[in-house]
Amino acid sequence: MKVNGTHYRSLWWDDDKAALQIIDQRWLPHEFRIQQVDTLQDFADAIVEMRVRGAPLIGATAAYGMALAAKIDPSNAHLDTAWEFLDKTRPTAINLRWALNRCRAHLLPLPEADRPAAALKLAHEISDEDVGINHSIGQNGLEIIRKIAAGKKDGEPVRILTHCNAGWIATVDWGTATSPMYQAHDAGIPIHVWVDETRPRNQGALTSWELGSHGIPHTYITDNAGGHLMQHGLVDMVIVGTDRTTRRGDVCNKIGTYLKALAAKANNVPFYVALPSPTIDWTVDDGVAEIPIEERQEREVTHIQGLTDDGKIGVVQVTPVGTPGGNPAFDVTPNHLVTGLITERGVCEASAEGLAALFPDLSGIAKSA
């Protein structure tokens, strides 16, 4: 997508510098900064500190991390060490381990001398695949929006609520939940997006930054406003992303997603999840019982970053001194609250049967795990 008229991906390889470049998302939406990632520690820090964030983007970043590891030392032992080092960075998003496993499985059968070039080539492929997957998700989600729009009065927008940022900066490009929005807007379908602030890191501000850059009408709202809007008939559909989805369709996403799903169910609002296939964990059935939920630093809850009146980025404390903060980063929405899963292969019900029908080539992983 574009930033000030220039097309960017969330990460890209600079051939001249022979290094990965990332958008450092800690400073968005107020400053646009690019960082070069040079060491394995840089890769780990970028993931842990959420310089890169979003399950698909974390996976792509990890693939480039393995490419660097292969360049430094292509031995089996070093690749295993790099795998373990990067795998520890964030526990919930399955794309991280998916990318690490894919890289290691691809490299270990090769002669050591061939591994550096092969690893970099695979990282490029994983990034390009992500772009294609997300574009296809957008095409399939566009048809849902188009059907809702057909029942609207002329010029009345389809009103979409989204939570967190499942946009292009959470992927390599296009985004997951935002891809249908971009493609509907580009197709001339009027839409209006309700953007949840998504405490504690206010990632809705990133979504607002994205949508505003693309010219899509939107309103930034508090996390607690969604149910009220649904009660009053002001939401036509919800689209969110996912960091891990079980084989039966339970969805793990940013904390607060479960509450939105409950409100949507109570008010007969369709609740869709934009789901790229690498985010499906075929080895897990019960999301509530089996998915590890990352507990992040309490400072993210007790403090908040923003733009001060003098135009500088600053941090302030919002809680009394000494008050502890709890910070579970994700929650799980059971499949019975999900209207449908929007994947790159089509839309299916959130169930083991629905997912297996779309991905018969992948669903067998559960049986062999």
TrEMBL record:
Chain positions recorded as substrate binding sites: 53-55, 90, 203, 253-254
Catalytic reaction annotation: 5-(methylsulfanyl)-alpha-D-ribose 1-phosphate = 5-(methylsulfanyl)-D-ribulose 1-phosphate; 5-deoxy-alpha-D-ribose 1-phosphate = 5-deoxy-D-ribulose 1-phosphate
Any Pfam family matching the protein: IF-2B
Record pathway: Amino-acid biosynthesis; L-methionine biosynthesis via salvage pathway; L-methionine from S-methyl-5-thio-alpha-D-ribose 1-phosphate: step 1/6
InterPro entries in UniProt: IF-2B-related, IF-M1Pi, IF_2B-like_C, Initiation_fac_2B_a/b/d, M1Pi_N, NagB/RpiA_transferase-like
Site description Transition state stabilizer, residues in chain: 164
One GO molecular-function entry: S-methyl-5-thioribose-1-phosphate isomerase activity
One annotated GO biological process: L-methionine salvage from methylthioadenosine
Enzyme Commission (EC) number: 5.3.1.23
Signal peptide limits: none
Active site: 243 (proton donor)
HAMAP family in alphabetical order: Salvage_MtnA
Function of the protein: Catalyzes the interconversion of methylthioribose-1-phosphate (MTR-1-P) into methylthioribulose-1-phosphate (MTRu-1-P). Also catalyzes the interconversion of 5-deoxyribose 1-phosphate and 5-deoxyribulose 1-phosphate. Part of a bifunctional DHAP-shunt salvage pathway for SAM by-products.
Name of this chain's protein: Methylthioribose-1-phosphate isomerase
Organism: Roseibium aggregatum
UniProt gene name: mtnA_2
